[in-house]
Each structure stands twice: as structure tokens, then as C-alpha cells.
Q: What sequence folds into this?
């Protein structure tokens, strides 16, 4: 939908995204617990911790199949570094690569091990230090590629498509796609923000931190679009049909785009470095959430739990990888193994967790408990009234809509 998608995303980020991040971060900081412990802290009833356990299940499901895609990114970066950009642009390169058995598994193991090393180093030495290096590099690389792309001949049409909202393209699918993207982009409803919130100091301003997250996260997402959309327009001569979502865009269309550019080999290399940085930081967040949950519940050492989670992730990632190769004939409701796990986590469990969080905070914990936690580190919660309305009424309706629409669409009951 181009500009209309961008507009919807920004509106949702400022409303739904804002209320969810505030709620999850404050829950984590006030309890100093993982998602399971945070939900269970407010009552002995088993159903109160139910939302926490679903929070725990989501990253457990996501990390393995996410690592498969992370492995693909390492493979492409490796080939760019070897100077094989022309080979990557071939029509059947990607499909032939993921259909293999051993090589994709090897790359996903590398990706998982890279994630695990950071987790083993801990929150300060590992996650914080690596983010201090990767995030500024991510911004710099994004700006460099975006400037290069938008100055190419023919990029103007792509910039207009990307930035100018076309009201005729407003649809239920545009809203659902934007909301689904928001879950992943802002790490909502998967326990990450509760986990990171539990590490926050009491004197840190939650409202200010959340605003910074929204600004920088949306800014990077905006730059990503500014890198990709005009580039595809330049390559395709303005054909909007070339803007296919998902693996097709990243691993088929963009290598063709880079191969057609002067200096495209360098741009392709830098682009996949950037994607790998982004993928690793996301994977680190997901695995850290899983590790923190099991450390919290078992009281075992962080090192032991990290090793166990790493072994589990490798074993569970292999089927998702082989689902494009020797197990490609196996499908679940018409979906590959990886797509099925993605559907269950992103389209079913995340909306359920988001709804339970809204109900939990809005009617069990009470919004005032969250606002008091926010105000404990700042003089005034400026968006207090707006937050209460959003978390109690607006956000629950939005997540129920995306849940029912996603499930009904997958079952063929409705078509979006």
C-alpha cells in the first residue's frame, strides 16, 4: 500500500505500540521478574500466570525458525564478501540454496552460536556492549545506503509511492499488516520488553525511554523502506508488482537490484551486514527472554540454561530448514514448517498475549499501578490519561480484530 501503510503504521505505533511498551516495561521493572513471574506476582490464581506462560512460549517458538532466516542472511553476506553478487542475482539461486540439506543447517548453527555467545556474556558485557556497537553502525549504514538509493535515476517515483498516502489503498489488510509488523518491530507481546524492563533501574524514566524506543525504532524502519522501495522502483522501471514481501524481496529481488547498480556489489555487502546486525540484536532479545524465564523458574545457572536453550534451538531449527528441502512435501494446512510456526506465533499467540496483557493491566493490576510505577522515576506521566484509555479500551479491540481476521483468513473463511 506504499504511503498509506506507512501512515497507518505510525499511527498504530503512537497509540497501540506506545501503550503496550509502557505496560510491559513497567510490569518488568516493578516485579523484577521474567514474563511468567511478572504475571504470577499479582495473584496466586493459576490463570493470572497464564498470560506469562504464553509470553514464554512465543520466543521459544520464534528463535528456532528465526535462526533459519538468520542463517540465510549470513550465507548471502558470505557470498557478497567472496564477490559472488552476480550468482546471487540468478533466478533460481535462492530456491536451490534453501532446498539443500546440509549447508542451510550449517549457517543457522553459526547464527545460533553467535547469539548464544552474547547471551553467555550477560546483560552488561554481552547485550549492552554489543548493542552499543551494532546500533550506531546500523544507523550509519542505513543512512549511507538510503542516500545512495534515493539519488539514483528513477528513484523519485519510488519515493513518492513510499511517502505519499493513497487513500484508495486503505483496507483491512493494510491495518492488519501494519499491526503485525508492529508486533515484531517493537518486540511486543513476546516477553522481551518485560524482560528488559526487569533490568531497568528505578531512577530511569520509563516514559522517556519508551519515546526513544518509538522514535529510533520507527526511524530505522523508515530508513529501511527508503533503502528498499526506491531501489526496487529503479530496478523494475516503476513496477509496483516487484515489491513482493518476505523472503522474495530480500533474497531474490534485492540481489537483482544490487547487481543492476553501479557499485551494487559494495551496496549489497553493506546491506546484508546491516540486516545481519538487525537480525542478531533481535535474536539476542528473543533468546535472552527464554533464558531469563528458565533461570527465573529453575534457579539454575545462566550458563547452564543458555547451553540448554542453544541445543534446543538448533534441534528445533533443523525441521524449519528442511521444510524447504527434503521435507518440502510436508505441509500443515498448506503452510511449510517455518511458515506454520510463524503463523502460530505472529498471527495467533501474539494477539492473544497482547489481549491478555491489556485485560491484565487494565482490569486486574489496574492502569494506576502502571502509571504509579512510571511516575516513580519522573515528575509527571504526561500521557497518563491517554495511556489509560488506550490500554483499557483501544488496544484490546485492535488485537482482537487482528486475531480473528488472521485466523479466519488462514482458514479461508474470509479473504483479505
A:
Amino acid at each position: 500500500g506504499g504511503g498509506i501503510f506507512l501512515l497507518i503504521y505510525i499511527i498504530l505505533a503512537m497509540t497501540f505500540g506506545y501503550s503496550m511498551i509502557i505496560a510491559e516495561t513497567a510490569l518488568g521493572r516493578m516485579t523484577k521478574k521474567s514474563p511468567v513471574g511478572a504475571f504470577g506476582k499479582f495473584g496466586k490464581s493459576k490463570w493470572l500466570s497464564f498470560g506469562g506462560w504464553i509470553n514464554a512460549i512465543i520466543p521459544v517458538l520464534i528463535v528456532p525458525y528465526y535462526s533459519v532466516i538468520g542463517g540465510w542472511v549470513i550465507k548471502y553476506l558470505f557470498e557478497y564478501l567472496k564477490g559472488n553478487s552476480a550468482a546471487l542475482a540468478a533466478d533460481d539461486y535462492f530456491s536451490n540454496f534453501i532446498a539443500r540439506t546440509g549447508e542451510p543447517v550449517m549457517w543457522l548453527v553459526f547464527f545460533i552460536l553467535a547469539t548464544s555467545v552474547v547471551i553467555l556474556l550477560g546483560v552488561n558485557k554481552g547485550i549492552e556492549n554489543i548493542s552499543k556497537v551494532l546500533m550506531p553502525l546500523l544507523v550509519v549504514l542505513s543512512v549511507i545506503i538510503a542516500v545512495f538509493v534515493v539519488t539514483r535515476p528513477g528513484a523519485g517515483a519510488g519515493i513518492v509511492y513510499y511517502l505519499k498516502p493513497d487513500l484508495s489503498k486503505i483496507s483491512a489488510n493494510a491495518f492488519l499488516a501494519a499491526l503485525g509488523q508492529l508486533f515484531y518491530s517493537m518486540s511486543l507481546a513476546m516477553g522481551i520488553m518485560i524482560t528488559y524492563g526487569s533490568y531497568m533501574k528505578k531512577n530511569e524514566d520509563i516514559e522517556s525511554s519508551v519515546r526513544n524506543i518509538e522514535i529510533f525504532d520507527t526511524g530505522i524502519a523508515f530508513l529501511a523502506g527508503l533503502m528498499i522501495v526506491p531501489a526496487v522502483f529503479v530496478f523494475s522501471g516503476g513496477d509496483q508488482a516487484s515489491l513482493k514481501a518476505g523472503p522474495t524481496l530480500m533474497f531474490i529481488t534485492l540481489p537483482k537490484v544490487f547487481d543492476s547498480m553501479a557499485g551494487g556489489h559494495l551496496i549489497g555487502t553493506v546491506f546484508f551486514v546491516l540486516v545481519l546486525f538487525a537480525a542478531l540484536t533481535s535474536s539476542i532479545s528473543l533468546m535472552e527472554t527464554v533464558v531469563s524465564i528458565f533461570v527465573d523458574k529453575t534457579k539454575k545457572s545462566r550458563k547452564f540454561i543458555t547451553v540448554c536453550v542453544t541445543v534446543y534451538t538448533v534441534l528445533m531449527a533443523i525441521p524449519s530448514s528442511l521444510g524447504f528441502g527434503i521435507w518440502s512435501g510436508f505441509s500443515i494446512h498448506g503452510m511449510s514448517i517455518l511458515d506454520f510456526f510463524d503463523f502460530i506465533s505472529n498471527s495467533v499467540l501474539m494477539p492473544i498475549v497482547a489481549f491478555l496483557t491489556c485485560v491484565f493491566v487494565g482490569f486486574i493490576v489496574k492502569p494506576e499501578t502502571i502509571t504509579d510505577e512510571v511516575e516513580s522515576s519522573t515528575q509527571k506521566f504526561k500521557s497518563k490519561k491517554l495511556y489509560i484509555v488506550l490500554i483499557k479500551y483501544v488496544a484490546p479491540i485492535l488485537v482482537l480484530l487482528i486475531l480473528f481476521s488472521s485466523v479466519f483468513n488462514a482458514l479461508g473463511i474470509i479473504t483479505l
The mean pLDDT is 86. Residues 264-298 form the longest helix (35 residues).
